[in-house]
Design brief:
heterotrimer; A alpha+beta; B alpha+beta; C alpha+beta; A: OB fold (Dihydrolipoamide Acetyltransferase, E2P); 3 domains; 5-stranded mixed β-barrel; B: Ribosomal Protein S5, domain 2; 5-stranded mixed beta sheet
């Protein structure tokens, strides 16, 4: 039972969705400490084992390396490192690897293969002209429709989804995505404002940037990487403001 | 008159060599770590869970852990020719099983978790240092694990049970000679995931091996924990 | 790190950036990244080092062994450089026998070192025609973030200079615990390699992995000093894109300057 909050932000042409509550140190009733697998986070019958934990007798044990969190009686471990865990409705950015008779195979940088069915295309596409809509090597922003053991089905219904043109894509560790987005999009909006760039953040860690000038686009990437690389997140907004002060020409 | 038993490097019987542990040594990997027992240095990197190729090797009921262990050519006195020897193929397998027990592979069907272990400097205990490094690397990669895996080579020099043999100690010849008994276990429970040995030991004494490995295992777990936590606290 | 192949749009973007003389990390097209050295990463090797160029890390170990000389050079010792691309260094590498990239790594470093005259092979003879020292150089990238070749050459040269000969006992056995003398090396020579990568009309040095994947062709030059003069010792072009005569001459102009710059940079790290 993990805390999920869905926030939709529309800004210019992008949609970003945050699926994890963003960490903040201002809430006093939440206790956090770094834990490793096998470590006991809390002891007591009335605790509830959340994500990344199991109950063993009286103890709630961590089954992942990360921030062990006690919020009320729910105990969970927030991942700081790790592969992308796809969830329904996640926006992801992927690269087309193949074209089949009924859709496109998309590498979403996950253990599971992504698939975009031809029906998802908003206009009529002749089966012989599929590569004119999406060719191998093209980049697409899509939403996860369903997750099956054989793969991830993708959809294009939503603002800002579809074939991406221009700009560039790069990767950050997926578990850092929530803080790059920020509480209600505050961090990503700050970066967009300071650089004048369009930015789409995929939950799979892939990020697309397109702006007016190469200098600003490069600056935006550096800013995102600055935020993503920090492990501690206290006062991150101030640190980023400061960073822009030093780095923006 | 019996000689008082002394280890060649002056350690007490239950004393392991000085440990070194650090994570994040291979930036490209999803998780990585270095672990050393004295002069034996191992690095491990984890990639995954990721797609398993070729597709026909995928198992829809479970993920697979692939482990590869080897010595770098210059890690030993007589240069080792590149390429896996039979010894390293055997160690790759048993080390993989030692780590697998801590992971619920069924939650990653159709995928593979690749573990690479390489020895930079070999002074006995290479597979145990490698497993300790790999265990940290798996945690660093965010792989769900019920516990960390700790590993140490318990030995016997004649009748004396000792922890963490050096190469010199492996060549001990007096009395019952040298016995090398590498083990690995889940850090916080009485569950052994690697068991190998060669030498001579009475069946009723095996218990002592397991007890010493449990005791020493706690120290190893502390070192692994410290290295993992340091990676988060060292910042800005 | 990802195994996702480079996307069309990122490749086009890098092409555009390079044509403007810009890079993601702010370097000039011909600048090298920061270099870090750590010696003696393996006490079992006669000499060893880890070299980091940016996030690329290569470790090299030098071992000495005894063998027979090659039939056509009975009065010379041997050099054997082997490169291995272990899967640890990148999600792109697979476990198995060496592919082209690994083979090339060993061979190109070998050529750059051998042709420079850095090793005084005649001084590696124990009994002419029968017994000579063989220098084994084993090159292992530990993290591939581009430009392995140039990093590997730096590492190999420094490992050779750092190495000490083991003791040869009277009975012909080798005592690795007693290492004393340096290898017989020319002090002046100091080979370096420079791999020029081409994308569109831009020529770039020391690319990151992302930049390297975008580039179409590469030419690597081994350079050293011999009798006070700059000498090109080795060369290899890979990839299907062409290099024009003009581009090659431009590289010849750049090389001596880059050689001096790198040599100073490496010296300052000691």
């Amino acid at each position: 039972m993990s805390l999920l909050s869905k926030i939709t932000i529309t800004m210019k042409n992008e949609i970003n969705e945050a699926h994890e509550a963003v960490e903040t140190d201002s809430d006093a009733s939440i206790k956090r400490k770094v834990v490793v697998p096998g470590e006991t986070i809390a002891t007591g019958e009335d605790y509830l084992p959340g994500e990344g934990t199991i109950r063993e007798g009286e103890n709630i044990i961590a089954t992942r390396f990360g921030l062990g969190e006690e919020a009320g009686k729910v105990v969970r471990v927030i991942s700081i490192f790790g592969a992308f865990i796809p969830r329904r409705n996640n926006v992801i950015i992927g690269r087309v690897t193949d074209i089949t008779f009924n859709g496109w195979l998309i590498d979403v940088d996950s253990a599971l293969q992504g698939f975009l069915p031809i029906d998802e295309v908003p206009r009529f596409i002749n089966k012989n002209e599929m590569d004119q809509f999406l060719a191998i090597g093209d980049v697409v922003a899509a939403k996860i429709w369903s997750i099956k053991s054989r793969g991830i089905d993708l959809a294009l219904k939503g603002k800002g989804l579809g074939r991406l043109e221009g700009g560039f894509i790069f990767r950050i560790i997926p578990s850092r995505v929530p803080r790059v987005i920020g509480r209600e999009g505050s961090m990503i909006n700050l970066i967009k404002e300071k650089t004048g760039c369009n930015i789409t953040v995929g939950q799979n860690g892939w990020i697309w940037i397109k702006g007016q000038t190469v200098d600003n686009e490069i600056l935006a990437r550096k800013a995102v990487e600055f935020v993503a690389d920090k492990v501690h997140i206290t006062g991150l907004t101030e640190k980023v403001e400061e960073w822009f002060g030093e780095n923006k020409k | 008159m019996t000689k008082e038993f002394k280890r060649t490097d002056g350690r007490k019987p239950g004393e392991i060599r000085k440990m070194s542990a650090k994570i994040g040594v291979v930036p490209n990997a999803d998780g990585s770590a270095l672990f050393a027992f004295g002069k034996t240095v191992a690095i491990a990197a984890v990639y995954g869970p990721r797609k398993l190729h070729p597709q026909h090797m995928q198992d829809p009921s479970t993920g697979i852990l692939r482990c590869n262990y080897d010595l770098l050519s210059f890690s030993v006195d007589d240069r080792k020719k590149p390429g896996p020897s039979r010894r390293s193929q055997e160690i790759s397998k048993v080390a993989g099983w030692a780590l697998e027990s801590a992971i619920d592979l069924k939650s990653f069907p159709n995928t593979v978790i690749d573990v690479q272990i390489y020895i930079l400097q070999a002074d006995a205990g290479t597979r145990t240092a490698g497993i300790n490094a790999a265990s940290m690397a798996l945690a660093h990669a965010g792989i769900p694990m019920k516990d960390l895996v700790v590993s140490v080579a318990i030995g016997k020099q004649d009748k004396h049970i000792v922890a963490d043999l050096t190469k010199e100690e492996e060549d001990y010849e007096e009395g019952e000679g040298a016995t090398d008994f590498p083990v690995a276990k889940l850090a916080n429970s009485d569950n052994f995931t690697l068991l190998q040995m060669d030498g001579k030991i009475q069946p009723e004494r095996v218990k002592e091996i397991l007890e010493l490995s449990t005791k020493v295992g706690k120290e190893i777990y502390e070192a692994q924990k410290k290295a993992l936590k340091e990676a988060i606290c060292e910042d800005d | 790190m990802t195994n996702m192949d480079l996307s069309n749009l990122t490749k086009e973007y890098i092409l555009k950036m390079f044509s403007m003389g810009k890079r993601f990390d702010g370097r000039d097209l011909l600048d090298f990244r920061n270099i870090e050295l750590v010696y003696d990463i393996s006490n079992k090797a006669e000499g060893s080092i880890s070299v980091k160029v940016g996030k690329t890390e290569v470790v090299v170990g030098v071992k000495l062994g005894i063998g027979e000389p090659y039939p056509d050079s009975p009065d010379k010792g041997n050099l054997m450089c082997t490169g291995e691309l272990l899967p640890i260094a990148s999600p792109r590498y697979e476990f198995g026998p060496p592919g082209f990239k690994a083979i090339e790594l060993g061979r190109l470093v070998d050529r750059a070192i051998r042709e420079s005259g850095m090793i005084e092979f005649k001084k590696l003879v124990i009994t002419p025609g029968e017994k000579v020292w063989t220098i084994y150089v084993d090159i292992y990238p530990l993290n591939d973030d581009g430009n392995l070749l140039d990093a590997a050459t730096i590492a190999t040269v420094l490992a050779l200079k750092n190495a000490k000969m083991p003791l040869l006992n009277e009975d012909g056995s080798i005592d690795y615990d007693k290492r004393k003398d340096s290898l017989p090396l020319s002090k002046e020579t100091n080979p370096l390699s420079f791999s020029f990568f081409k994308l569109g009309d831009a020529i770039v040095l020391d690319p990151t992995r992302e930049e390297e994947e975008a580039c179409d062709s590469r030419v690597t030059w081994g350079m050293s000093k011999w009798n006070g003069e700059y000498m090109i010792n080795s060369c290899q072009k890979i990839g299907a894109e062409v290099f024009s005569g003009e581009e090659i001459e431009k590289m010849m102009e750049i090389l001596p300057k880059k050689y001096e710059e790198m040599s100073r940079k490496i010296k300052s790290l000691h």
